[in-house]
Amino acid sequence: MPVIPDTMENLKKCICGGCPTHNQCMKDRMEGLFCARGKTDCEFTKKGCICGSCPIASEYRLDKSYYCEIGAA
Ligand code: SF4
Ligand code: SF4
After folding, report:
1. With the C-alpha atoms ordered 71, 37, 51, 48, is the resulting torsion angle positive or negative?
2. Which of 67, 68, 70 best tests ligand 1's pocket when mutated (most atoms within 8 Å of CB)?
3. Which of 10, 21, 54, 58 to mutate to test the pocket of ligand 2 (most atoms within 8 A of CB)?
């Protein structure tokens, strides 16, 4: 199981902000990097997950999606 460091550098690489599922609640709370920080407390509807295109996913060989729902990798 990879443990992804919750760093500013990794947060900058996270592409959750461009994801259709990343809603206003998540934006208001400036949430992202769910694969490191764990799941959101926001209510949301799944509209697709773009983790597969994220550099963090490649770097740490993540093979799941919806980390905002399932929590940290
Ligand atoms: S894998 Fe997903 S949750 Fe993790 S940093 Fe990338 S876009 Fe964000
Ligand atoms: S974890 Fe996946 S579904 Fe959730 S906001 Fe990030 S890219 Fe979108």
Report:
1. positive
2. 67
3. 21
In the chain, the number of structural domains is 1
Predicted confidence at residue 2, as pLDDT, reads 72
CA end-to-end span of the chain, whole Å?
7
Which residues constitute the domain of residue 61?
A: 8-70
Tell me whether residue 1 is in a domain.
no
What is the pLDDT averaged over residues 23-38? 98
In terms of pTM, does the model score above 0.70?
yes
